Amino acid sequence: MTRPRTVPVVVWLIVLLHLAVMLGQTAVFPNVRSPDERQHVDLVLQVRQGDAWPWPGPGTAFVTQGVTAGGFVEADSLDGPQHLADRQDVPPRGERPSYLEAGGSATMTEEGPDGEPEPVFNQLVQHPPLYYLLGAGVVSLVPDWQDAPLDQVWLVLRWWNALLALPLPLLLFATARRLRLPDPLPVAAALVPLAVPELTHLESAVNNDNLLVVLGACATLLVTRVLTGDLTRRTALLLGLVSTLALLTKGFALMFPAWILLAYLVAAYRHRERLRAATTSLLVVAVVTLPGIAWWVRNVVVHGMLQPHGTHATPPDLTPVYGWADGGLTWLGRFTERMITLFFVQDHAAAREHDASWWMARVALVVVLTGLVTALVRRPVPRLDALVLLFPVPALAGIVARGSWEQFAAFHDFGAAQQGRYLYTGLVGLLVVALAGAAVLRPAWRRAVPLALLALAGAMHLAYQYDVWRLYWLPADGGPDALGRAMAAVGHWYAFPGAVLVTVVVAGLALAAAVAVSLTRTALGDRPPDRPAELDADPMLAA
């Protein structure tokens, strides 16, 4: 009888460090400065009030005036550095406007092309409601939330999103270990979220992608179990449940059925003697996934299309007007550049500058591509398994490219829907396979991989934070005290007491140091951190 292997201490430290980074970024990035964050918060609040439940039809939901109380900067693309340290118009903490004080459920308006006020659509009703129902449940825990300063309610929702993403390092670790990657690569896998600054930024904001990313990570682990011979109905039931929840979160989960079918086909081919078990489990997945599929069937029946357009009650005319000769190559170049850059970092001003974080995104891309090519050529993981795990990324990229091209062909829009974050549902498979490329290294070099990945993550965040602080917080006049004034401004703007933010920062620094020390010992020592000492002493336990 064997003992189950435990999660090593360093992985738990990485989980906590990941949480500290996310919570720290809730202070660094002002409210509304994550993609569509204002609309996400607004829809959560409308569900809480009962205004958006039952779910509104497309083109019938508008952003409410009350949500403007939660932000003090523009929600759209910025026109340059904001110098928020110079702002004197932000009231003290606790005295900021509430949802009701800012207008409550009244419809928000903006000046239209003809100078007349026009209502602002909340296009996010094109998505299923699960994330917003959960968010409304979180808001219900805040006493008198309508009368509380809305920036505090907003921060509660941001912390909830960070907690949603909390298990991601554990899921990466478990997936790498299930693939039997040699030590200490599973620990390196747990570090992956820290090496993608835009991921940790998204996790610290209010966005339905956060729920989908975690569900995608769960699905990747379960698919990995199927590929490695787990054809039990229990795993099939869990996979179906995760798929249903994902399909009730966002349309990108529509690639799940094809992905899961591919995994079971590979498993059935590899274990032909267990064909009946594979078929039964696949049927279980299909049955349990039906509630999620039903939402999209409903869309076709009610709205005449799989995913309705959020700002049109009837499907818009997307008849192609422009073709490849009208700038298709320019569209493709921009699509490729945006998907790469915005996977790793964020261009908050939409300036497409080749700044420090842009260059670090290219460094990370080279590392990932090197790992992928090595893994596919040298096959430390069976090639079929690797291809199945990689399937979500090209599938998601294809969905995004199709939607972006439709907008280009109809309206000559070169930049529609080009967000690298849309690939995060496949992040676990992509980066675990890339990390598997390090399995071909000699043991002495392999022991240094987690430390090298931590160093890369640190460099990525330094570049990212440099650009972010320069864009948002640094005062216009510079000076030797510029950083201190910017930090003071962050503390003033933060919705929770300053002691909370100080605790998060100190804990994050302490955790980073503890992880660095542990990984340095691994790089210099003989025993990797993801194998308890007693397992080294008993080879039967290590099997």
Secondary structure: elements and pairs:
Layout: H1 9-28, H2 37-49, E1 109-111, E2 117-119, H3 130-139, H4 150-164, H5 168-178, H6 185-190, H7 197-203, H8 209-227, H9 233-247, H10 256-270, H11 275-303, H12 328-344, H13 356-378, H14 383-390, H15 392-411, H16 427-436, H17 443-446, H18 449-472, H19 482-493, H20 498-524, H21 533-537, H22 539-542
Helix pairs in contact: 1-4, 1-5, 1-20, 2-3, 5-8, 5-16, 8-9, 8-10, 9-11, 10-11, 12-13, 13-16, 13-18, 18-20
A few lines on this structure:
By secondary structure, this protein is mainly α. The protein contains 22 helices and two strands. A hairpin with a 5-residue loop joins β1 (109-111) and β2 (117-119).
The side-by-side strand order for the widest beta sheet comes to 1-2
Overall body shape:
globular
What is the number of domains?
A: 3
Order of helices and strands: HHEEHHHHHHHHHHHHHHHHHHHH
Structural class: mainly alpha
Rg (C-alpha, Å): 24 Å
Uncertain residue ranges = 530-543
Structure description:
The structure is a single chain. The protein is mainly alpha-helical. It folds into three domains: 9-20 and 160-217 and 314-542, no CATH class; 39-71 and 80-157, no CATH class; 218-313, no CATH class. It has 22 helices and two strands. The chain has helices at 9-28, 37-49, 130-139, 150-164, 168-178, 185-190, 197-203, 209-227, 233-247, 256-270, 275-303, 328-344, 356-378, 383-390, 392-411, 427-436, 443-446, 449-472, 482-493, 498-524, 533-537, 539-542, and strands at residues 109-111, 117-119. A two-stranded antiparallel sheet has the order 1-2. Strand 1 (109-111) and strand 2 form a beta hairpin. Helix 2 (37-49) packs across helix 3, helix 10 runs antiparallel to helix 11 and helix 12 (328-344) crosses helix 13. The chain is globular, with a radius of gyration of 24 Å.
